[in-house]
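Data availability (excerpt). All sequences and predicted token strings are deposited with the supplementary files. A representative entry, Type VI secretion system secreted protein Hcp, is shown inline so that the format can be inspected without opening the archive.
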Amino acid sequence: MSDGVLIYLKCNGLNGQCGHDNHSNEFLLDWHDADAIGTVMNSAREASGHYKAFPFSVVLSTVAGKDAANVESETLKSAGAMRKIIDEATIKHFEIVNGAQALTHTYTLNNVTFSPTGNPYEFQVNFTKYKSKKQGYNSDGTVIPSNEVWYDTKTNTSSFIS
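Structure token line:
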């Protein structure tokens, strides 16, 4: 595991189910490995016809060499708590539950921008640095300046905009 920021897209749907079971829809992205992002997104799309793991929790961790599951976590109650965590790094592992309901401000973490869309069931993730050789992206692996993934936790769908 690198010392980069990790993001988990965790299934958190009705009765705890998305697709077959929680574990099959739990993905890990390491922002220091851009190809992993493409792998995860493609795997989710291929498995379901659209990007799965929605509704979901977003878990960010800056802990190097440790299992994130063993790091104390705190559910965000407000954008202020979220901002404090990011700015002060006092808590290394946290979750945003139920999509954008806890988001009221845009923030950027390791070249990834999270911002609310105005819809309480959506939030926008802007990959300011992204590289992938997966089908549907730049075939030569060049960096795409900006990609947007729109997650809709109400309809359980999302779209990828390059």
